[in-house]
UniProtKB/TrEMBL annotation, chain A:
PANTHER family: INTRAFLAGELLAR TRANSPORT PROTEIN 25 HOMOLOG (PTHR33906)
InterPro entries: FA58C, Galactose-bd-like_sf, IFT25
GO cellular component: cilium; intraciliary transport particle B
A Gene Ontology BP annotation from the UniProt entry: intraciliary transport
Domain F5/8 type C: 16-120
Source taxon at top rank: Eukaryota
Pfam families according to UniProt: F5_F8_type_C
Organism: Brachionus calyciflorus
Name of protein: F5/8 type C domain-containing protein
TrEMBL record, chain B:
Domain of life: Eukaryota
Keywords: Nucleotide-binding
Pfam families cross-referenced by the UniProt entry: Ras
Classification via Gene3D superfamilies: P-loop containing nucleotide triphosphate hydrolases
The protein's name: Uncharacterized protein
Molecular-function annotations in GO: GTP binding; GTPase activity
InterPro entries found in the cross-reference section: P-loop_NTPase, Small_GTPase
Protein family membership: Belongs to the small GTPase superfamily. Rab family.
Matching PANTHER family: PTHR47978
Length: 136, 186
């Protein structure tokens, strides 16, 4: 399931704090390894992935560059609001490889929207290559 | 064509003209505060800088910090996650030049890990006669790897240049980061 680009499941980016038209936020869902989203300066930076309806998620996998701290929140509401924190992750600085992380949600994890916030970073600009999901 | 945002620390001794520079910059020369009004903690001034090359725009979030010792610890808290620094001294005040290195070291502590520092040194009040030796200025700026600018907030002389320089260095860094990301995933 990880191999199916989220964009093909109807998921879409409903909000992003940075938008360079050459590296748009929608790149994180396209499944293409040579595209990514780049933030264009200042912290925090956020991106919200919305699903067409409430989905069951087993886990997500995220690949990023130069992120130090990432907060993941979810919302069950039709509109992207009233988020609750799901988890927070720290990353080691890496100049040569992408930072990879798999987040297991356990049983019966449901969400309509997922919000990813980069609260700390190792550089002025960070990148997100993929956000992949395994549905439950 | 990109639109970037960056956090800039404007630091240096009290009365060197940090707030005056920021005011003159943000009003495009329209406002020069004639009377000194001490900055309390930190003031945020936002200025968009347009670069002619590629039509890039950088929105600078200038953190105009007080140079007074009593505000120092509180000011430092507002310095986190900065992208650039501007070190200001007063050309007619030798002591303020002597303290540039101090401000640099303090700002550097808030730049975590290997995040490179983009910055410049400004000798302000070029309308007054300088008491600081040019060779010393050059040596100090070089030692910090920073470009040196001379301006006068009072006469609106050269005020834009250092900020244009920062903006273009910031865009350069952005493009380098993208290049680096592309290399990593190849
Ligand atoms: N002659 C001259 N005076 C200047 C210039 N820039 C600022 N001043 C004067 O210097 C004094 C201090 O200016 P400020 O801009 O308030 O100084 P500051 O660095 O912000 O001071 P703090 O907020 O206390 O850290 C004021 O009286 C200004 O009018 C300049 O280019 N030339
Ligand atoms: Mg001031």
């Amino acid at each position: 399931m990880l191999d199916i680009p989220l964009a093909r499941t109807g998921a879409y980016v409903s909000f992003a704090t940075s938008n360079d038209e050459n590296h748009p936020a929608s790149n994180v869902l396209d499944g293409n390894s040579s595209t990514f989203w780049v933030t264009t300066g200042l912290l925090p930076q956020s991106i919200i992935i919305s699903f067409p309806n409430v989905v069951n998620l087993k886990k997500i996998k995220i690949t990023i560059f130069k992120v130090q701290n990432l907060i993941i929140e979810k919302s069950m509401k039709p509109r992207a609001k009233d988020f609750d924190i799901v988890t927070e992750k720290s990353f080691k600085n890496d100049n040569h490889y992408v930072q990879e992380s798999e987040i297991e949600f356990g049983h019966n994890f449901q969400a309509r929207h997922l919000k990813f916030t980069i609260s700390e970073a190792y550089d002025s600009f960070v990148g997100i290559q993929h956000i992949l999901a395994v549905f439950g | 064509m990109v639109f970037l945002r960056g956090k800039v620390l404007v630091i240096g001794d009290t009365c060197v003209g940090k707030s005056s520079l920021c005011q003159v910059l943000s009003s495009d020369g329209g406002i020069y505060p004639k009377n000194y009004s001490s900055t309390i903690m930190t003031e945020l001034i936002i200025k968009q800088v347009q670069l002619t090359e590629n039509n890039d725009t950088v929105e600078l979030f200038l953190y105009d910090s007080s140079g007074k010792a009593i505000y120092f610890e509180n000011c430092k808290e507002t310095w986190l996650n900065a992208d650039m620094i501007v070190l200001v001294f007063d050309l007619s005040n030798k002591e303020s030049f002597g303290h540039v290195k101090f401000w640099y070291e303090k700002a550097k502590e808030t730049f975590l890990y290997d995040k490179p520092i983009i910055g410049c040194v400004i000798g302000n009040k070029s309308d007054l006669s300088s008491v600081v030796n040019q060779a010393n200025i050059k040596q100090m700026s070089d030692s910090m790897n920073m470009k040196y600018f001379e301006c006068s907030a009072k006469e609106n002389q050269n005020v834009m240049d250092p900020f244009k320089y920062l903006a273009s260095e910031y865009v350069k860094k952005y493009n380098e980061n993208i290049k680096k990301f592309k290399q990593i995933i190849e």
